[in-house]
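Before relying on records like the one below, remember that each one covers exactly one chain. Contacts with other chains, cofactors or solvent are not represented anywhere in the record.
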Amino acid sequence: MDTTNLQDDNQIAMRIVELCRDSDEGVPHDILSRSIQATEQKAIEILNQLIRGGHITVKTNADGPIYNYQDPDRIKRFQGLDRDHMDIYELIKQADTNGLSKNDIKNKSGKNPTVLNTVLKNLQKRNIIKSEKSINQKNRNVWILSELEPSVAVRGNIFYKKGEFNQEFVDAIYDKIYQYIVSMSEKQDCVTKREISHFLRSTDFASADLKDEDISRIIDVLVFDDKIEEIHGQKYKACDWNEAIIPSVLTQTPCGTCPVFMECREGSIISPEKCIYFLQW
């Protein structure tokens, strides 16, 4: 290699960091070496400086070393953490968006409660992890990484707010859809799910991030409640009460008209033993 064209150390270091930052999978040593203008000895020297400085990390597989970018903010947040902290961090990281309860972390890590409480408090203080209320774990929170959003299994769908079922919100959507279908039925028009979705997104609910499956659930409840009927394949109109309607066994039970039937399970926040509809039935 013509040494007169070699870049200076700072330029080489900046190029290495740039290559690592642009690759989510990491940069293999041979590709990195071909991408910079430096002797092998100089490249290894600068790589070691970057690793010691925490700018990049290195791991080895069957093909040799692979280099990954290290976020400076992450370096600052993780600086000085001991093995206990990193062990618990890795467990929570592996749980991804589903998170782990404190009891799960205790069982998986084997840490005593005093150490565990201290570690969780420190990691939360450094904004590495956060606590989220789970709809599936009665009176319990789960821990997930701060940069992640909890899964639907943890936070619930649009019908939940801060881990609690938002009955007022569900009722408001229910009434809005019903009023729209009634108004269209008076014009002798049937409406499709697509038209109902389009209507809702043109109202005050436009900012609610309603998904098609959420709207479908409310429509299904309206059908079960005999408020509307489905005709001609996914077209809807308001029920004509001049016609005899014989309710089915399913629609006469709370479960048959429940908008969160799929989330209902024993021991959960939404559960048969807590069902307010059973008390009214």
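The first strand starts at residue 27 and ends at 28.
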